[in-house]
């Protein structure tokens, strides 16, 4: 028994134009072609067609659906888990975007932005201790960069604070490096792979701003954000006196 494309459309609820599209992408090919060249489908393809379209409605890429249809049971389990994790991240990103829009006040000029690292980055970190003064690690930027022997891939400098006492501050200085960067030559260098991340960004913060911590708390409360990890300071180069304050929201 075979269905014409019109009959198959009625069985599946999918318009003929979509069935032709799936055929063109070799995702759902007709069981056979009739003598007149028309597409013909079998009853067994009805559920497959509905499942394929359901995965498309879930925003799964066509190439991934095709791979899923050709996979064995174990491979399908792995793919389903990856899809679930990806959808969870997208839901978190949408939630963060909703909180951001909800925190905007039309009467005020906004200083907080959303920014996403679409590709993973590799950061080479080095730990330093400095006196607790404004911009405490500035003098260490050049030293940290020189230790990487010209292997940095960006002028940006990253700082994350780890501990603060009454007169000292400990933190890490990081630079972007290539994925092939090796830490074998130095025990003080740690390589971190940072996945694509959505950040809330407070721009042009002064390194000597004594009220930044208070401003940060106000932002978190106002927008209802829950930081996903440590906060970062990003300087445009080793001589910069201001930085962007990056608050990770979704990783």
TrEMBL record:
One of its Pfam families is MerR_1
Give the SUPFAM superfamilies listed for this entry.
Putative DNA-binding domain
User: What Gene3D superfamilies does UniProt report for this protein, alphabetically?
Assistant: 1.10.1660.10
Q: Which SMART domains match?
A: HTH_MERR (SM00422)
| Record domain HTH merR-type: where | 2-71
Give the InterPro entries listed for this entry.
Answer: DNA-bd_dom_put_sf, MerR-type_HTH_dom, MerR_fam
PROSITE patterns found in the cross-reference section:
HTH_MERR_2 (PS50937)
* GO molecular function terms attached to this record: DNA binding; DNA-binding transcription factor activity
Which key words are in the record?
A: DNA-binding, Repressor, Transcription, Transcription regulation
Q: What is this protein called?
A: HTH merR-type domain-containing protein
